[in-house]
Amino acid sequence: MGLDDIEANHQEAALWFTKAANQGDPKALNDLGNMHNYGIYFEKNTEIAIDFYRQATEAGSDAGKCNYGWALIKSNNDTVKNEGLQLLKSAANNGYIQAQLNLGRIYLGDYGFEIDHQQCFHYFKAAADQENPEGLTSLGVNYSRGYGCERNQEKANELYKMAAEKGDAQAQFNLAWSYHYGTGVEHDLDEAFQYYLMAAEQGHPGGFRGVGQMYEVGTEKSPQNLEQAAKFYHLAAEQGDEVAEYNLGVFYQYGTGVELNLDTAVKYLERAAIKDDPSANLNLGLLYQEGINSERDYSKALYYFERATHLAHPKAAGCIGFLYMNGFGLEQNTSKAMEFFEKSASMGDVHSQYNLGLLYKKIERNEPNIKNACYWFLTAADQNFGAAQIDSSIMLINSEDEENKVEAVKWAILGKINGDDRADNLLKYIDDHISEEIINEGASRADKFYEGN
């Protein structure tokens, strides 16, 4: 019969710990502190717990130093916090792992201490050298980010694997992430799936989300299963995982793996949006703009677009520009629309680039505006946006320059491929008015563009 076979009896434990503590036993004093701190047998009482930790510290317990030091660090008094720091260092230097881990976190900037990546690395390495799973994982993160060491993702993955084999859920998730995105290892979704699943089996929210992502896209060994993806996103979202909340919101928004339900979509998107997820804020703005259950709310749409703009979503300012351009919930204002379109266009948003082209074309009172319209149409056309390709062709087709005519043919053909319904009439005009030599060259360029995309 071993210790594992003895049934837990907190009353008896409290009795014997108390007897040993009365004789000054440092371990018993610390254990009594834990019982009061976590409400085991005794009513939870932090003050009593801290006093036992103090007594354990005075009796020379490294666990007591760690717990009492940690309590002091949480105070608002710098002198007291520094006293706590010294106690943690004393325990850590004696090899007490939890103190080493706590110090590693402190030197990442927790509890008002200055960030010191060298010290952070030192203490996480001390825990990792004792093969502590959390220490191995934390040291891996340091190597991944280059904190206190030269950045080395391969070394990070080695440490994650060691910790993952010891059952550390965070390491399993981190290793899954590396395989998922091919960071320091060969990209392998099936390996990612297995490590995400290991983390999920331990209730890790990122693990649940990762399994959902693997089911959403499908892997070589595990085919796409959108219902399973939704199930795992639900599990992650219940634990507050921001990415899962956003993904689940999108699932309900479009009826992917679940029954379409815009009210439920809003619920999950709002959870992610309040955590400053840029895409969740953008999607909420679009939902309110398009109407939830036939009810449009442009003021809410503007609110979420502004939040997404503040969070640097490349499309968000363009969405505000769209409201100004059409007078949706705002007084119609072409200048304001162009101002916001330019913000998104400069960040690569193809719809804003195209809308800028339309506005410059609409106000083509002088040559600079025409050039600006052509510039933005061509910029969007280069991103394979069909409507912009047709407008680019229209603006170039009557040029006296032969090079422009060749480009006009190219864009017309590509606009046709991308389904713009103006393409047929435009191509008929080209056949009737452009030489065969130019058409052939334009077609050749269209082929090269298409192959490159």
Protein traits:
mainly alpha, 453 residues
Could you please describe the fold and organization of this structure?
It is built from 25 helices and no strands. The protein starts with 9 loop residues before the first helix and ends with a helix. It has helices spanning 10-22, 26-38, 46-58, 62-73, 78-93, 97-106, 117-129, 133-145, 153-165, 169-181, 189-201, 205-217, 226-238, 242-254, 262-273, 278-290, 298-310, 316-326, 334-345, 350-362, 367-381, 386-396, 402-417, 423-433, 436-452. The protein is mainly α and 453 residues long. The radius of gyration is 31 Å and the shape is elongated. Helix content is 72%, strand content 0%.
The computed structural class is mainly alpha
Q: How would you sum up the global shape?
A: elongated
Distance between the amino and carboxyl termini:
69 Å
Strand content: under 5%
Instruction: Compute the average pLDDT.
Output: 95
Report the total helices. 25
Q: For the report, how would you describe the main beta sheet?
A: none
Task: Provide the gyration radius in Å.
Answer: 31 Å
Order of helices and strands: HHHHHHHHHHHHHHHHHHHHHHHHH
List the helices and strands and how they pair.
Elements: H1 10-22, H2 26-38, H3 46-58, H4 62-73, H5 78-93, H6 97-106, H7 117-129, H8 133-145, H9 153-165, H10 169-181, H11 189-201, H12 205-217, H13 226-238, H14 242-254, H15 262-273, H16 278-290, H17 298-310, H18 316-326, H19 334-345, H20 350-362, H21 367-381, H22 386-396, H23 402-417, H24 423-433, H25 436-452
